[in-house]
Amino acid sequence: MIIIYTAMIDSPEELSKFELLYANYKNTMFSVAFDLTKNNHTAEDIVQISLIKLIDILYKIEYTDIKKQKCKNLLITITKNTAIDVIRKESKIIPFEAIDPADSPTMSSAEDCYFESSDYNDLIKCIDKLDDIYRDVLRLRILHHLTAIETAKILNTKVCTINMRYKRAKAKLSNLVKENRNV
Amino acid sequence: MSRKSKKMNYFLELALEAQLKEDKETNYYKSDEDIAELHCFSLDHENRMQMIVKLAKKRESHAKRKKAVLRVAVSIAVLLLVTSASIASVEAFRIPFLNLLFEVKEKSSIFGVTNDMNSKLTKKLTDYEPTYVPEAFAIDFVKELDDGYMIQYLNEEMGQWYLVTFKKEATLVSLDTEDGIVDDFVLGDRQFVKIVKGDDLRIIMYWKENQYELVGNISFDIAMAILKSID
What we know:
Shape of chain A: globular
Helix content of chain A: 55-70%
CATH superfamily of the largest domain in chain A: Winged helix-like DNA-binding domain superfamily/Winged helix DNA-binding domain
Order of helices and strands of chain A: HHHHHHHHH
CATH architecture of the largest domain in chain A: Orthogonal Bundle
Strand content of chain A: under 5%
CATH architecture of the largest domain in chain B: 3-Layer(aba) Sandwich
Radius of gyration of chain A: 19 Å
Number of helices of chain B: 7
Strand order of the largest sheet of chain B: 1-2-3-7-6-5-4
Structural class of chain B: alpha+beta
CATH topology of the largest domain in chain B: Protein Transport Mog1p, Chain A
Number of domains of chain B: 2
Oligomer: heterodimer
Helix content of chain B: 40-55%
Strand content of chain B: 15-25%
Number of strands of chain A: 0
CATH class of the largest domain in chain B: Alpha Beta
Radius of gyration of chain B: 41 Å
Number of strands of chain B: 7
Largest sheet of chain B: 7 strands, antiparallel
Number of domains of chain A: 2
Distance between the termini of chain B: 74 Å
Shape of chain B: rod-shaped
Structural class of chain A: mainly alpha
CATH topology of the largest domain in chain A: Arc Repressor Mutant, subunit A
């Protein structure tokens, strides 16, 4: 009975996961949105839309990760991409996909990419050199363990685009590591 | 996903997390606790946020409930497994448990009794078999004869028994009536002869040119109920 009873009890911390995220990063999110829109009202709207998006992936966030850099980065990524989407809709700029470089270098399969442990420090530097669109996909898919569908929702794009970007990101990273090694 | 691919993803995850420490964008934006001048959100925003928080809580509680149900199910499964393992491995538990099972089997109308009531007589004789069997009685043995059958019923607990014999054609029976009370009577189209000798009772029933005989140490009323149950 005790086992069953304890199984039914959840830690009270989990109840306020969303509120904790909001309390810790609402101003961070606002800053990201304001930097891109330069408008208080629009920035607040973007924060709200971003938080609604966050609800769908709350289950992927651990309570212990809330104060970590990776959680902060996730909220920045969500807010930044929501802001880009809002600006695009308002100003009718060329769609984001259009500036996505289709002519990627050596399109080797993701399975072919392999980073040896000796490359670890180089790899970190190479991640830094990656374009935002690729780095974001890699972070969302690998660091935050989101599915292609969840990633597509956050980045306001199609699932097939996400899959393509994910493959390209790995290939690009692999090439950057190889280039670094040859230098 | 292949093992190599999984390993590579894990390696990449570590690198991505490490890179975040030096990531310009992530470091540029500070967490709320490090921001000196906090933005004062509008009342409209706060009102909308209340709705969003409600929505989030609802989603969280739904997920939590799902998780709790899963946990309870797993706990019950583990509990059952542990209990079964304990019963099977510890003699002190196993013997009383098996005894309990046997006891249930003996008493239950679902276990056992129905099987014991099955005389397995051939189809041509089942029509002549009594349909009423008193409580706690079980078939002890069955014997098919050329022109009838013999079925003995036993109540081991009470030490009671009775034997029903059927013959297709009524024959003259030599009645050992010495020191016994003999009585004959008619009920409908059935003719009866009753002999009581000490605790033993013997009733012969003649009906439709057939002869039924019941011998045993049961009461007269029960014996009559048994014979009347033959249609």
